[in-house]
Amino acid sequence: MQPKQNILHLPVYQPGKPISEVKRELGLTDVIKLASNENPFGCSPKAKEAIVSLLDQVSIYPDGGAVDLTHAVAEHYGVKPNQIIFGAGSDEVILMIARAFLTPNDETISAFPTFPQYKHNAEIEGATFIEVPVDENGKHDLKAMLAKVNERTKIVWICNPNNPTGTMLSEREIVSFIESVPNHVMVVLDEAYAEYTVNEEYPDSISLLNKYKNIVVLRTFSKIYGLASLRIGFGIGHPDVVRSINQVREPFNTTSFAQKAGLAALQDHEFIRTCREANAAGIRQVTAELDKLGLPYFEAHGNFIMIDVKRPGQAVFQGLLQRGIIVRHDPGWGYPTKIRVTVGSEEQNRKFLEALEQVLSEVAVS
Ligand SMILES: *Cc1c(COP(=O)(O)O)cnc(C)c1O
């Protein structure tokens, strides 16, 4: 049997190590995972109640159209229900956009490094993927990305804040980019960390939808809403675009649990506000210490910080792991001396910083 030629080179996704595995392998009892940008405070208690309330209905198929949640999200953002599409995480929305729009004749563009799923799904569809390096501050180089746009370009993926660098593009920068690309190009604004941003210049992308028909905004319940395990995220765009994405959607792609928990999570404004503020305080806590240690980092606008440890990132990752702290280092980023750490609770951050200081004294500077 022969798989499709264009998937032969694709790597199988390597997730961050699960806590249970690290505990077992290293014989540790206290392990902190700061590797996958999960919410250290869990999810809203209202979302938990919603899940429990459905336990007797496991045998019933979910509402494939996610009608209740669609209406709640539409109201929350002031858009029409036919502008919203749900996926099993925004990962699946990325997959569906690629499936609905990309062909082997198309080109598609992203920053590098950025969220890997744009490239992964584009290559499955056989499209040509063009990666444009971020600048020295870890920010999208929109000018260089624009220079790559041509008549074959179908989609430009913009991750804002960018995972893994954490940097942010302002509304002015986003608008100027959208104004410069031709109308046949779809601009996907992946805003998985939008709710964490506290900078006034962060774009109000959903209001831009009224003016620009060619943008799709991606949001997720996996990050600040704390529902990563339930797998639910969504895209907001022009009704015609959303209809095309809907045509390739699997009939029951989001579960009843995810829909009902998402609805409850969306309405718990207090939980979200608390998490946003704790995260901003956590960024201040961690970066103040990094300044003392003399370690550079990119401006952090999400719930994670990319740190230059000035030593082999893999060795620092391993040293932290030995001390029960799981962070992320990916050789594929092209940053051999950087690690990405999720902002945790105050105590988790303190333990991370203590462990980091010890590891720095053990690993030789590159
Ligand atoms: C985490 C993340 C997502 C998707 O998460 P889902 O769990 O699939 O919703 C999408 N984009 C970026 C940039 C992310 O970091």
From TrEMBL:
UniProt-listed Enzyme Commission number(s): 2.6.1.9
Reactions catalysed, as given in the entry: L-histidinol phosphate + 2-oxoglutarate = 3-(imidazol-4-yl)-2-oxopropyl phosphate + L-glutamate
N6-(pyridoxal phosphate)lysine, modified sites: 223
MF GO annotations: histidinol-phosphate transaminase activity; pyridoxal phosphate binding
InterPro entries per UniProt: Aminotransferase_I/II_large, HisP_aminotrans, HistidinolP_aminotransfase, PyrdxlP-dep_Trfase, PyrdxlP-dep_Trfase_major, PyrdxlP-dep_Trfase_small
Alphabetically ordered keywords of this record: Amino-acid biosynthesis, Aminotransferase, Histidine biosynthesis, Pyridoxal phosphate, Transferase
GO biological process, one term: L-histidine biosynthetic process
Cofactor: pyridoxal 5'-phosphate
Domain Aminotransferase class I/classII large: 29-356
Pfam families: Aminotran_1_2
Protein family per UniProt: Belongs to the class-II pyridoxal-phosphate-dependent aminotransferase family. Histidinol-phosphate aminotransferase subfamily.
Summary of subunit composition and partner proteins: Homodimer.
NCBIfam families the record matches: hisC (TIGR01141)
Protein name (record): Histidinol-phosphate aminotransferase
Native source organism of the sequence: Paenibacillus naphthalenovorans
